[in-house]
Structure formats: C-alpha cells, structure tokens
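re: that chain from earlier
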Amino acid sequence: MSSHVPIIAEAGVNHNGSLERALELIGVAAEAGADVIKFQTFSADAIATKVAPKADYQKRETGAVQGQYEMLKALELDEAAHRALLERCAEKNIEFLSTPFDLASLRLLTEGLKLERLKIGSGELTNAPLLLAAARTGRAIILSTGMARLDEIRETLGVLAFGYSARGTPRPGDFETAFESDAGQAVLREKVTLLHCTSAYPTPDDEVNLKAIGALAQTFGLPTGFSDHSVGIEIPIASVAAGASMIEKHFTLDRNLPGPDHKASIEPEELAALVKGVRRVSAALGDGVKAPRALEKGTADVARKSLVAARAIAAGEVFTEENLTVKRPGTGLSPSRFWSLLGQPAPRAFAADDLIEM
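^ sequence. v structure.
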C-alpha cells in the first residue's frame, strides 16, 4: 500500500474574483508540495436566488448588508480565467480541480476543460440532478459529506451508482437498487472517494470527529479522506493516523484579506508545514504488521540480554540459580531459557561473564 496521502490545497474563492490572485495561489500550492489545487466553478445566477441569505460565518466575515447572490457574483471566474488556471497548473505540475455548483459549470469542467475528476461539495450532497449528471460524465468523484447522515450518504451513492451504470430517467427505487448491486458497488469503489468534514468555519476541535473517517470507510467500503475546517494544521496531520486517505484544506495568501473563507484558511507557510507533516505521518504509518524491523537488529543485540555465567562453572557442573545470571549483550541464549537450563550439566567450562552456549 502506498504511504502517499494526496493533499488538496483548497483555494476555493480565496482569489476574491481576481485571476491574478488565483494564479498566485497556484504557485503557492505547488511550492508547498500540494498534489492538487481546488477552485470553485459556479454562476451566481444559477445557484442562488436574489434573496438567498448568507451563512452566519459569511455574514461575520463579509457583513450582513450584501446578500449571498451579490457576494457570489463578485467571486465568479469566467471560462477564460479557468483556462488560464488550468494552463498555469500544468506549468507548475500540480493538478487543477474544481467543484461545480450547477450544470453549466459541470459541463465547463468536463467537456470544456476535460478534467479527469470532480470534487462535489457538501452543500451539493442532496442535489440529485447535479450528482446524476456528474456521474454520467464518467469522471471520478471526490464527495464531501459535511452536514450529512449515513442514510443521506447512502442515497447519494445510489444516485452516483445509477448515474455511472444506467441511462434514462430514474424511477422510484432505481437508486437503491443500483447501490445494492454488485456492479454498483464495484463502480463506486473504482470512482468515488468520500471526505469526512464538519461544515462549520472554523470548526471547533471538539466538533471535528476524526473517528468518523474510519466509520465512513467501514460503512461504505470506499476510500475516505478528510476535508478540514479547523484552525491550524495539527488536526489534518492527525487525520492521517485516523485513516484519512486524502486531505483537503483551505489556504489563502493572507488571512486578513476580505472574503468569506480567508479567516478559516491557512497561509502559505502553514500550507508548506502541513504538507511536510502529512508526509512524515503517512510515511510513519507502515504496513500494520508488528514484527522486528531490519534496522532493529543491531539495537536488539545491544539492548537485550543473554544467559551468562554468574561465576566460573566447571564442565559437567549443574546449572543453578546461583551460577547463572542475565546480562548484555543479547547475542547468546535468551533469558527465557533460564528455567529450562536449571539442573542440566554444563557442556563445558565457563568463566564468569561467558555467554552460555548449549
């Protein structure tokens, strides 16, 4: 099993609608060693009504006067900007990824930019029409599960299983049938990665629930990663030990910039430290087999002990608790043989501190 845990540097809308800033974010992510940089692709007209309210955290960071539609409109990037971002990612050798929020954006990413996989955000987990269309592109999908119950995730996976394997208008029961089928399960294992997350910005430590990573993996039998919204880098690094197969983390050029997500993001130096920490922890996970490592052999010879003569022992003299003792090095008979030797004759003479050989 590979120890490499892919890291998605979530730029999101932290470009504040500026292509120049978005291009700079790509350079930062690549320099930090992230595998992927992710943006968001949407049309404000397609995803929000003019009266849609902001989330509480968005009001906190951007004010309550402007509505969600106006906020989103200022954060859009057009097709030309997307193509420029894709080109810069190729130059920097980092994967370009984006989350579509509407059908036109999905088509841009798959038909226009030819992306090989998609990220579906937690807010779209119940958006069955978008999910079905995404699966019908045949692309691999990374699915965030914030705010979701297990039954909702199961329903979503049923939509994806049907979309990957069937055509036509779905009828009642088709999604469940697709999920339960062997073919449906096989295509989900091939195409879908789940991400556990808590949709709060930032997420308090006691609401992160890293143990849910293992629960999701066990319940659905799919690769399961972690999309982190906590403060700092310690928790996403720890998620690797909790079984995360992928990590996503928001980052920004400057947490003091205006915008909805900057305050809950890490800055360039922290992103580099996150990547380094994840690489160390993922390398340290090993294969799970408890057995001596090859590099421990020299330590065992020095640190363990052997049966030795406590005093001079004549050939044929019976071994006793008085003439045997345990000392370093560990290159002789194991001390666990102590009692089996008692009462046996010495095969030869031993000087004090000689390793006992039988």
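The CA atoms of residues 23 and 85 lie 6 Å apart.
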